[in-house]
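[User]
Um, tokens okay?
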Amino acid sequence: MVSVVYKPSPALAVRQAEVQPDIVIGSFLNDRRTIPLFQSLDRMIEDGQLETEEFYPGILDLGVFEEKQTLLPISFSLPLMFFLDSYREIESFDLSLGQIREHAAGFPELHPSRTVLGYSPRWNPEAAFTWLRLLNVDFRETMEGTLVWNQESLDRGISDMREWIEEVNGGWEADIEFIEKYMYEPPYKLVNSGRILFAFSHIDTYFFIPPADREHLDFRWISHENQVPVREDMVFAGIPRTAGRSTAARAFLEWFFRPENQALLLETSQYKRMRHFGIAGGFSSLQGVNEIELPRFFPELVGHVPPASFIEFPPALPDIWNDLKSESILPWLQSQLNEVPASQNLSRSIERWINQQPQR
């Protein structure tokens, strides 16, 4: 019998468990406090149970601890901009920040008798954060557990976004007025109605848009210097060191990481009409599954699957990252995009948030 237990933070659950499960699947398992609790999977590779060439180049490195393959990446998500497919001006495979700005700046000229706006960095704090990722702000955790980043790139990113609002969107008053007047509707409705040109999403949430509302949409990956940043919450699988049924757990992993079995999972998901994207809610860590199998079940991906060289994987981050980002970093970032930015710096915002959290 197989018993599946949901935990909101699998990494925390592993650290606190008195009796370890046989296998753990979740995000941030490779944080510095959690990855030592998992056993090496090197023997699976040596015995040919895992074909490492099936994985994206470099992705397995994210699950290495003390030079041993300790975790296996399962899936990841990528950021995109979507727009009406009738907008024929975009011929490239991806969109750089400069291209997004150029298209957004010209959009009102196509609709002189109507109030429209191409895009604003203030519409979605997650999009603004992705902008910082593209500029190599490089949030990461040190061995001592301190969160660090490139302050120069952070300052540059915020300056660029503020400049966009002032120079492309007609200033703060016009930007705020548009938000208050129109941005109460879901972004996909605003795109479909032609009110805005671009809306931000990740590939998993994009496919949550009802199919009828996606019918006339198209999308491009957001990139900088031909790199598309993977969202930080990649999904991993690992077997705890003290798991009681390690042999069975390894057999499951061997089965799961065969491309033909992931194709079977995609087929089953479609048959059951399950409303989620891909493998574990994202692109598979197996390159061939994304290039061959996913477009069969998600036709909108035809011609859109990014080559391996485009994909930039994130460094290991603490398991509190999602909460830290949503409750501290993103609100702080939004405050910097007000007409009068908040005076508190990011370090202080993070410090205050951490001090308010229970000990983990």
The chain has a mean pLDDT of 94. The domain at 10-76+231-307 is CATH 3.40.190.10 (D-Maltodextrin-Binding Protein; domain 2).
